[in-house]
Amino acid sequence: MNPEKMPRHIAIIMDGNGRWAQQRSLPRVAGHKQGVESVREAVRSCREAGIAVLTLYAFSRENWNRPKWEVKALMQLLSQYLKSEIKELKKNGIALRIIGAMEQLPEKLQSQLRTAMEQTQENKGMILNVALSYSGRAEILMAARKMVESVLNKALSVEDISETTFEGYLYTHGLPDPDLLIRTSGEYRLSDFLIYQSAYSEIYVTQTLWPDFRKKHLLAAIQEFQKRERRFGLTGEQVRQKNPLSRQDLSYGSRVGA
Ligand code: FPP
Questions:
Q1: Distance CA 27, CA 14 (A)
Q2: In Å, how far from its chain's centre is CA 51?
Q3: What percent of the chain has pLDDT over 70?
Q4: How confident is the model over 192-219, as pLDDT tens digits?
Q5: Can you state the angle between helices 68-91 and 107-120, rounded to 10 degrees?
Q6: Exposure of 71 by Cβ count < 10 A (0-12 exposed, 13-18 middle, 19+ buried)?
Q7: pLDDT tens for residues 162-191?
Q8: Whose CA is nearest to atom 22 of ligand 1?
Q9: What number does the ligand 1 atom closest to the CA of 130 have?
Q10: Sign (positive/negative) of CA torsion 70, 40, 62, 106?
């Protein structure tokens, strides 16, 4: 592993919980339960590897359309995770953040999440973003709406609209874009996850189902990432000459908060 080429931000689409359970003739919820173990290990491993930001896609806007019992079970698992893991997050200097339409979550879970966020907000070791009731398209619309409001309030002028100002209205404002986007269970889709922020992310798809995803799988993804040549629209030659216009320098290196 090359410490100079570590991704700053890893985003994961955790997929395959249902199939994992089905393969074992277990109810789908058993797959989600085992998936929480993988969440624990991914958080711990990313922290150990010095990753600055980890974003996990835990519940999409579309997931509300799943059977009621499954939605309820997922909310319960999240709540249990918070209860059992808050100490660990504090001990390891991890700041929890939620991205998505948090107001659509059950009230009790919202208040639990708010408490966990408040209690960890000063932590500088790693940011753990959990995407809940999340949709990338909805995020872009929300940001556009807020930006228009700023223009109408005269807090922003039309001439000052740029990618930088726009990014300030996204849930991920202030964070580096994902360098590495992992999807488990062999599906080649973004499924509306960080569609603005992943414009230049390296995508890594593994056949491993999320409940089986362990530290060794994460390290394999990072190793593959380190072999990729990130060109950001330049030619390979320009990148190898370390053209000053390359965004390469922006994608590795300094830790958030450091
Ligand atoms: C996708 O598998 C997984 C989900 C929709 C839920 C992910 C949630 C967890 C791992 C647990 C809670 C999360 C945290 C952060 C504690 P799927 O059900 O779509 O699998 P399938 O495609 O095989 O049916």
A1: 18
A2: 12
A3: 93
A4: 999 999 999 999 999 999 999 999 999 9
A5: 20
A6: middle
A7: 999 999 999 999 999 999 999 999 999 999
A8: 16
A9: 15
A10: positive
Q: Distance between CA atoms of 55 and 102, rounded to whole angstroms?
A: 15
Tens-place pLDDT, residues 8-22: 999 999 999 999 999
Ranges 105-109, 224-228, 230-234: which has the least confidence: 230-234
CA of 233 to the centre of ligand 1 (A): 34
Residue 177 annotated among the catalytic residues of the structure: no
DSSP for the chain, please give it: --GGG-BSEEEEE---HHHHHHHTT--HHHHHHHHHHHHHHHHHHHHHTT-SEEEEEEEEGGGGGS-HHHHHHHHHHHHHHHHHHHHHHHHTTEEEEEES-GGGS-HHHHHHHHHHHHHHTT--SEEEEEEEEE-HHHHHHHHHHHHHHHHHTTSS-GGG--HHHHHTTSTTTTSPPPSEEEE-TT----TTSSTTTTTTPEEEE-SS-GGG--HHHHHHHHHHHHHS---TTS-HHHHHTT-TT-THHHHBSPPTT-
- Output the pTM of the full model: 0.92
Catalytic residue among 15, 123, 177, 179: 15
